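Form 12-C: Joint structure prediction
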Amino acid sequence: MELSVILFGKGGYGVHTLGRVMRAALLKENPSLYIALAVDYDTVVKGGVSNCHLIISDEPCNPVVEGKPDVAVDYVASRAILRTRDGVLYLGIPAEANRRLSESVRGYVLLGMLVAREYLPLSKEAVHAAIEAECKTPRMCLANQNAFGKGFEL
Amino acid sequence: MQRPLVFQSALYIIALELDLEAFVNREELVMKKEGWSVVETKEYLKAFGISNKTILNGNHACALGALVAGCKFFAGYPITPSSGILHMMTKYLPLFGGQWYTPEDEIASIGMCITASLCGRKAMTATSGPGFSLMQEELGAAILNEAPLVVVNAMRVGPSTGQPTKPSSADINCMIHGRHGDAGDAVVILSPRSAQECFSMTVTAFNIAEEWRTPVFLALDGYLSQLEEQVNIPEQVLVYERIKDSGEPPFGKDGDISNFVPIGGIRPQAYTGVMHDSDGNRSSYRAEIAEGYIAHLLAKHRSIAPVLKKDARYSLFGKEAIASDTELLLVSYGIASRASKDAAVHLADMGIKTAYLNLPVLWPLDSSMFEAYKNIPQVVVAENNTGQMLPFIAPCFSKAKISSFAKWNGTPIQTGELVCFCERLFSKKTKTSETLAALETAGVSAQQKEKRENNATLVRWHEYNGEVPFQLCESVHEKEESEILVHKLYPFCPGCGHQSFIDQLLPVLSECGLSNNNTIFVSGIGCGSIVPATFDAHLIKTSHGRAFNAARAARLEYPERNIIVISGDGDLVNIGCSHLIHTARGKNRFPMVCFCLDNANYGMTGGQPSATTPCGASTSISSPESLEPFDLKKLLYDGCGIDFFASVSVADHEYLSEVIRKAIIVSRKTFAFVQVFSHCTAHFVKNNRDLFSRDNLKEQQGIWERE
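Section 2 - Result
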């Protein structure tokens, strides 16, 4: 398997945490995977560019995303872009639902949508467990799990 | 990019993989040589809360490696992207009997580390480009005194502040040649390419530093310092302790290493920056001492590389095997090596017989490192900079055509782009590709060559009789009065005090008649320094801590203009403190106003304590004993004798406007300093609400002025 993911967001949205959640969930499903996580951000504490790159492979490789990623999760546009052999697929959070969401949980909603459609090799249970392991506070954990669940149902 | 079947390419691929076998349990090696011992990693892993197989980023792996290697002293200054090492060392070093300190700047950091080393402790600091530049003079002293030392440089795009969060391998030249004097380049530079190697090479760096009594630099690029990967920490590692005071002279001779005589040891020992001989006899005059000791340092340095190449204790070089008909060699180091390795596989599958060579040691280089590859006809050196290692590598391949793949835009090399570059070198399709290849061999791109030919006309100064031969360059536009306004919104954190300050400042400036025609702003680095950068105004934004140098020069150059310094407590009162008090000393020579946006921490780099952090405050670094913060009123008004000092909170808008107004008026005649309590909502206030409460700050407000 070889997959590259970039999470596009802003400082303070929890982009890096989502990256770690995805990594933890992927390793739970398949502990033999090589997963590199790289952060990319601007010199602004909150509100500036903050992206997270994930490189997933069966064996260690160049931990750099080649060109455009296979999966792009865009917090700002509230959509995910998938590059497949059949073309480019866009997955967006419906406007009505998006209006009620805070920026920091959009990524989890999109993750839920991706997992539900099996665009990522993850199970719901693995993601739930990963959120619990990676999120710092119970409140954050619950909010993210709920958001993921809602995305799964969308 | 789809990965091809590896076994088809295996014949042509050189995998100079780190030989982990050499790293584990070499008791037979240890017994043969004094100073070496085997160290168990169990207790360190337990302290970190991790197991042998874990996920670490480069910074954390370096910190773990340092602890395992026996590092007992760390001094560092927060700087992106190496601050992670600072955080880990301050957290874990005390658990293993070590000491740490975060002084006011990098010059102090390196000075403290060198002294700790001269006292007998294994010492390390971590920094990035700008901080590394500051350390050069002191590093020269470390070389001269044969002080073992490890310096981690997490490199980023430069020069100057550059792009702090964008990775690059841009400091290679500085690391090799940054020091003045002969033998200033007598250092060792290691280059890890993975989080795993960040751990293992940090251990190796300490071993080399201790055995050879030399500074060792770890060239970590910013991407790797924050890259999180799976690592496999061995159960045991080999660690070297320097031989202490066995009665021999304190310094080596003719390239040999002597015992180390610590400060505070059995016999009195002096370490200075003055040239000396192996017995420590200092002379600032005798030619034979300079000649002999410099020759010793150079000889010692030259002898390091062959040993590193062969000695399994250092675990830097692995097995080598190469097919005789290999057509292309990719040479790389650092994170670029990962792209080279993958690219070699792809190229081999495309029919180009390719090998790849990783350089774990960048300096000193030895021709033996390239012996096995000398007959390969085409070599590509792939680097994440403008080709800084190319001049050192090229002479090692006398028969090959050398090409440089240089990427310096702050993003790491992708496998695909390296494959395309190499494939073009071998393409027989068009003349363009051959031409490009030839140009690249000459180190000149086609665009550069064309530009050079077009710019052949030079402007020459002619002799003249005091008359200016052409018109002086002056602005053609007439001066217009322009109000100082915010022209570029900056995303300050929600609730940040700095935005409130801006909202009060600009109307008062306008009211006092300040405009772009009569005002120059100066700032440094940090959240507070960004404030004037949002204005459409004249601004000099200096390196970290150097705002007052620029302000003084601007004052002398434009005696009729208002000079306004706006920066933060870290910038002005920590690293810039010396310049602050000397500017205050010249209060009437340098009339200006300084607004110190005091948020009581280093906000931009993650909330580390600064010189104004109140005692007992909670910050991102826990300290066993926090120091008393500077009382800036006592320091500047009572101590330095300035004529105007004010403290005010951004929350008290009316009072803030009044203070700004008064300070501007006073600044026309003398130096005025305003300490503005400006809360940091991202870090400090989260855990210290009471310290920044309105009532608490109101008590500290005041204006002190002399006639």
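Section 3 - Comments
Chain A touches chain B at residues 2, 11-12, 20, 23, 34-48, 57, 60-67 (CB under 8 Å). The first helix of chain A runs from residue 15 to 29.
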